[in-house]
Amino acid sequence: MTARLIDGKAFAATLRDRVATAAAAFARDAGRKPGLAVVLVGEDPASSVYVRSKGKATIAAGMESFEHRLSADVGEAELIALVDRLNADDSVDGILVQLPLPRHIDERAVITRIDPDKDVDGFHPVNAGRLATGLEGLVPCTPLGCLMLLQDIHPQLAGLEAVVIGRSNIVGKPMAALLLQQSCTVTTVHSRTRDVMGHVRRADIVVAAVGIPGFVQPEWIKPGATVIDVGINRTDAGLVGDVDPGAAEVAGAITPVPGGVGPMTIAVLMRNTVVAAARRAGVAVDPAL
Ligand SMILES: Nc1nc2c(c(=O)[nH]1)N[C@@H](CN(C=O)c1ccc(C(=O)N[C@@H](CCC(=O)O)C(=O)O)cc1)CN2
Ligand SMILES: [Mg+2]
């Protein structure tokens, strides 16, 4: 292995500590703790694990955790009514509906119902628009976590060639917007791109978020490039990323799966919650958070 392994787990632990400090300052200034409401519909095992981890991380950061578990056959109207109650609840600063939702519920209808200023997932179209136009908003956790890891390696991102593989609303599109905001030259490649390898070969930074195990081949990587693997694919061989492990022989730095991007998602969720709380209450928050 030649590449430096990017330790997302350690980075996330440091971020969670800084969030705890900010949450304590918020509690002092605002006279209450920041609050995060997490809604889980159904009993998908992976989602249940993530929701439990979010609750634990919230409490560990000195914040208030509100967990709402609804049965898999709950109606869309009932779920939306819960979102309305959470929007109106002043002790709730952040609202998150765990995805995926059961097929009979329209994900967009639910996400667009969340108050954009409590949308700590950053999935609401108002927050997507704020990000695209450079306004202050809430940014999706996984891409913001990837950016934090990248900034640690490249304090100066300006001018670097970045290729984002995948164009989902949750990772690919916000990732490209964040890198553009940092003055990278950004290319997004996707299932209809004609020469994916040709684009990736030029990249100083590769962010893979396609959801296809081992999709990115070692020979696509420019020697020394930084590779961020967002993939979390459950296979017979265990948990694998979107990047072939052989890429570690070519890259300069690479995130492992597990232990790379994954842990950053929940740490950034904690960060977004304390930031949302501070903005709502009109109190200061560590600008470096
Ligand atoms: N409302 C949301 N739903 C979903 C999101 C999200 O950000 N908001 N992201 C994913 C699931 N997710 C958090 O919700 C999440 C995924 C993975 C990890 C993580 O730490 N992964 C570990 C491996 C864990 C394992 O063994 O399964 C890693 O990669 O190292 C945290 C959170 C979809 N839904
Ligand atoms: Mg795609």
Automatic annotation (TrEMBL):
Pathway in which the depicted protein is active: One-carbon metabolism; tetrahydrofolate interconversion
Q: Which residues form a coiled coil?
A: none
Q: Which residues bind NADP(+)?
A: G166, R167, S168, I232
User: What UniProt keywords apply to this chain's record, in alphabetical order?
Assistant: Amino-acid biosynthesis, Histidine biosynthesis, Hydrolase, Methionine biosynthesis, Multifunctional enzyme, NADP, One-carbon metabolism, Oxidoreductase, Purine biosynthesis
Q: State the source organism's domain of life.
A: Bacteria
Reactions it catalyzes = (6R)-5,10-methenyltetrahydrofolate + H2O = (6R)-10-formyltetrahydrofolate + H(+); (6R)-5,10-methylene-5,6,7,8-tetrahydrofolate + NADP(+) = (6R)-5,10-methenyltetrahydrofolate + NADPH
Which CDD domains does this entry report, sorted A to Z? NAD_bind_m-THF_DH_Cyclohyd
Protein known as: Bifunctional protein FolD
Q: Which gene encodes it?
A: folD
